[in-house]
Amino acid sequence: MRPTAPPRPAPAPPVLVTSRPLDEYCAGFGLTRAGLGRLPGPVLDCPGGAAGLAAEARALGCEVVAADPGYALGPGRLAALAAGGRAAMADAIRRDPRRHLPADRRHRPDPYLRSWDRARRLFTADATAHPDRYVAAALPRLPFADGTFALTLSSYLLFAYPAVFGPADQLRALRELARVTAPGGEARIYPLNDGRGRPCPHLTELRAALRHHRIANRVLRTGPTGRVLVLTAP
Ligand SMILES: C[S@@+](CC[C@H](N)C(=O)[O-])C[C@H]1O[C@@H](n2cnc3c(N)ncnc32)[C@H](O)[C@@H]1O
């Protein structure tokens, strides 16, 4: 009998680079353009990917610093990866529009995907002109002082890729996002489900662990299915 090889662990799915625009950030995180314009300090977008947030929010008087390990590649190469992310999303939408499109856009995937193209172009131009606003860095360690940001945003990473971020990694990353957030400010994390729409099964335990570290937190409902984890810096 031939010895059988032990089963190999399934490879972790690659983290897509995406390019969501400001309006999709506002809808996902439960924010408004006016609220962003009134913030008393800078915003951190981690992971920023090829999103349009930093470029678009500046027009509202809001300073955004984006952080992502992909910025080490330079804007052109990251934008090329984001074009691949857009193609992957177009495929996913074709297969299951209900899961991947906001309810009001279910029958109009093309304008939705064009909003990603526009955000990607804005990112490329902004990151080329202002490289200091795009910091190459990876959670769970960010190169910012405690309490730097009035608002910290983290979308489509910590809960979207549970094979990459297990519970202990999620806790470390959430504590880091809270650390760089100013007292009285908030860190918002979205979505709270994985790429197949399955809610994080250990959110209650994670929230208790955050409280143990003196990080107050709540779950904000932003719509029938939208939920955002909101942390308040200790
Ligand atoms: C799905 S994109 C989200 C980008 C943006 N927030 C958006 O919604 O368009 C995920 C991003 O996470 C970045 N990433 C991967 N590992 C990371 C880590 N450890 N810390 C921070 N960002 C990471 C990837 O480079 C990629 O750009």
Automatic annotation (TrEMBL):
One of its GO terms (molecular function) is S-adenosylmethionine-dependent methyltransferase activity. Gene3D superfamilies: Vaccinia Virus protein VP39. Residues 128-186 form the Methyltransferase type domain. Transmembrane segments: none annotated. It comes from the Bacteria. InterPro entries: Methyltransf_11, SAM-dependent_MTases_sf. This is Methyltransferase type 11 domain-containing protein. It comes from Kitasatospora setae (strain ATCC 33774 / DSM 43861 / JCM 3304 / KCC A-0304 / NBRC 14216 / KM-6054).
